[in-house]
Amino acid sequence: MRVDPKPFKTYEMQLALVKERGMAVEDDAAALSLLARAGYYTLSGYWHSLRLKRPDGSRTDRFREGATFGDVGLLWEFDNRLRATTFAALQPIEMSLRAQLGYRLGEVDPLVHLRPEDLSIDDGSDYRRWLEKLEQNVRDSREEFIVHHRRARGGVIPIWVAVDVLDWGGLSYLYNFTPLAVREAIADRFGLTAPQLKSWLRALNVVRNVCAHHSRFFNRYYSLTVKLPAPGVDHSLDEIRPVTNSTFAMLTAIQYLIAHTPGVNGRMLCAAMRSFPRQNAMNLGALGAPDDWEGIELWARV
């Protein structure tokens, strides 16, 4: 059966609709400007928690008393800051992982990535797709170091060069293919075991992609989660054990990796968290953060 789409609504009609549903709009011009910049359905993800609940926990279309369009704008702006800061915080971790993979695998063999018999591969199809992507990246690259190897080195690209054309996802797959001894050595640098780091790289790749594509971030929950050390090994990680699928858990994992990455500090993520708007009793619960999150060691010491 064909279902017709909802009728198109102008910005003015969209604003009238949220007013009709009980949201206070303090400044029509500012609200219309935000609708034009962000889009109605993007903003609806931020006002979802401002809608009234039914007895079964589902949300109605009506907004709770005190909900304002200004609050929605503040949440949207906070999410933009948190998302941009998270993406920036992941960069030094990615650089450290890239450097470690290039160095440790180079010790094994400069061309170990081209020799599957020397790798630890569970699924040959994954390796073939990864290698095809790597070769495509090398062909498309205009980086001087790649051009040099194509022209002066006969196109022979050692692993410590190849890692520089891999994104987080590609590095994550390469880590999975890496011989166990190398995986363990790299994981130890980050204060984790090899299976733990494998799960962290997969989970944080999703976080990185959410940030890169400017998707709603602060109140998102994840199907891929980080595998934590045993209880008592790290008290900060124990704090996120009940909410490992939350954004706060992912941010705490990033803080942990930052703490194990020389020359990097976690102040910027902490500052972004502190910028959360607290008007109208809004709180960080939607992130999965406890009220006393600033007292957690990984957050307190920065």
Please identify the structural class as seen in this structure.
Answer: mainly alpha
For the largest sheet, list the strands in their spatial order.
1-2
Overall 3D geometry? Answer: globular
> Could you give the order of the helices and strands?
HHHEEHHHHHHHHHHH
Tally of domains: 2
Structure description:
- With 302 residues, this protein is mostly helical.
- The chain folds into two domains: 11-67, no CATH class; 76-300, no CATH class.
- It is built from 14 helices and two strands; from the N terminus they run αααββααααααααααα.
- It has helices at residues 11-20, 28-38, 40-47, 69-108, 124-140, 144-152, 159-162, 168-177, 180-189, 194-212, 235-239, 247-259, 267-274, 297-300; strands spanning 51-53, 59-63.
- The chain has a two-stranded antiparallel sheet with strand order 1-2.
- A hairpin with a 5-residue loop joins strand 1 (51-53) and strand 2.
- Helix 1 (11-20) crosses helix 2 (28-38), helix 4 (69-108) packs across helix 12 and helix 5 (124-140) crosses helix 8 (168-177).
- The longest helix has 40 residues, at 69-108.
- The radius of gyration is 23 Å and the shape is globular.
